[in-house]
Amino acid sequence: MAESANPVSRLIAAGGQKLFMLTLSLAAVLAAVGFSIAVFGAFSDLVATTFDRVLIAAVGAALMSLAGGLGYSALN
Predict the structure, then answer these.
(1) Contact 34/64 with Cβ under 8 angstroms?
(2) Are the C-beta atoms of 33 and 63 separated by less than 8 Å?
(3) 53 CB-near residues (< 8 Å, 6+ apart)
């Protein structure tokens, strides 16, 4: 496998299989929580204004994006 320039990837690779599996598990949980928050923000009537809905959906999307980056770093 080629040497990765990503420092997170190198850290995960140095940690062994347990850190690799923990990283993938954390990425999966972050993606699920982010998706739940995004759906809540987009469709909930409990949120006061449209701006609040967009803001909550953006937080969910950011968590899903973070999970994608973490998963990518673990696999490369």
Answers:
(1) yes
(2) yes
(3) 41, 42, 44, 47
Token pair in block for residue 27: 């990425």
How far apart are alpha carbons 7 and 12 in whole angstroms? Answer: 9
Contacts 24+ apart (CB under 8 A), 40-45: none
Burial level of 1, CB count in 10 A (0-12/13-18/19+)? Answer: exposed
pTM of the predicted model as reported, rounded to 2 decimal places: 0.80
Distance CA 33, CA 51 (A): 21
28-50 residue pLDDT tens: 999 999 999 999 988 988 888 99
Residue 19 is which amino acid? L
